[in-house]
Specification:
By secondary structure, the chain is an alpha+beta fold. The chain is built from three helices and seven strands.
Length: 139
């Protein structure tokens, strides 16, 4: 019983550590997209690791955002844990969601991975062009 999911952030070919949630299969994707609106799309420049969308820094910022405010004032004790990659925990109900981040754009795509299949979902209208442009600048 559960609603297991894991998430990672990715910039280029670099991925963050993996956040696993036992009960967050329905809510975690909504939380990430709200985090994108509240935090990532407001990052500008390249002065700081978060501005550059460095994946592990994005994960730390997401965790800080997730447990902010009076409605989340308890220390997480059972739902969340970290792993080195998508196979380092249980995401059997919903798979692993990889959020592709681009500086000055935020999240532009989601890849959903399970043991059997992979699906790509563009979250921004211009995402394919932005991703291609970003790859061209960093290869």
């Amino acid at each position: 019983m559960g609603d297991r999911i894991s998430i990672q952030f990715q910039t280029g070919h670099e991925r963050s550590v993996t956040l696993f949630s036992h009960w967050g299969g329905e809510t975690m994707p909504r939380y990430v997209l709200q985090f994108d609106t509240d935090v990532l799309r407001k990052c500008r420049g390249d002065s700081y690791p978060l501005d550059r969308m460095e994946p592990n820094t994005v994960m730390v910022a997401f965790l800080a955002w997730l447990f902010r405010g009076p409605e989340n004032d308890e220390v997480p004790t059972h739902d969340y844990y970290l792993g080195k990659n998508r196979s380092d925990g249980d995401n059997s109900d919903n798979g692993n969601y990889v959020y592709a981040c681009v500086p000055d754009k935020g999240i532009i795509a989601i890849t959903i991975e399970t043991e059997d299949w992979t699906t790509h979902v563009w979250t921004a209208k211009e995402a394919p062009e932005v991703l291609e442009e970003h790859r061209g600048n960093h290869e």
